């Protein structure tokens, strides 16, 4: 159907500094290429909201490498079509991994973590 090339985000919880008991989320990104196997979208039908939520129900299959195979638990988001989308599920079909995409991702990203401290009001 179509091709994909872009960053996939992994978010791991790390203790910083070690032994402090303070935990933070550390995002990392790696670029992958793959194939878009299904392309669809839907708007949520929630009468409680003024604007409905957009959810895409796409699947993208990528060729697995040792990093993604060992960090499946940390898969969190994908950057695609100019936005960040959450990964709803990952299905392993060797040698590929099928990623199911869900709604808009609002958690930490490499880009948002890099910008912390650049705002003049943050010290």
Q: How would you sum up this structure, described in words?
A:
With 123 residues, the chain is mainly beta. The protein has a single domain (2-114), classed as Beta Barrel (Thrombin, subunit H), CATH 2.40.10. 8% of the residues lie in helices and 54% in strands. The chain is built from 2 helices and 8 strands. It has helices at residues 66-70, 110-114, and strands at residues 2-15, 23-38, 41-43, 54-56, 59-63, 75-80, 83-93, 96-104. Strands 1-2-5-8-7-6 form a 6-stranded antiparallel barrel. A two-stranded antiparallel ribbon has the order 3-4. The radius of gyration is 17 Å and the shape is globular. The N and C termini lie far apart (47 Å). 15% of the residues are buried. The model is unreliable at 117-123 (pLDDT under 50).
Brief overview:
The chain is mainly beta and 123 residues long. A hairpin with a 7-residue loop joins strand 1 and strand 2.
CATH class: Mainly Beta
How would you write the strand order of the largest sheet? 1-2-5-8-7-6
Which CATH-level-2 architecture? Beta Barrel
**Whole-number tally of structural domains:** 1
Give the number of DSSP strands.
Answer: 8
Proportion of residues in β-strands = over 45%
- The SSE order reads EEEEEHEEEH
- SS field, number of helical segments: 2
Helix/strand structural class: mainly beta
Low-confidence blocks of residues: 117-123
End-to-end gap:
47 Å
State the helical fraction: under 10%
**Quaternary state of the chains:** single chain
Radius of gyration: 17 Å
Kindly report the average pLDDT value. Answer: 81
Q: Describe the largest sheet.
A: 6 strands, antiparallel, barrel
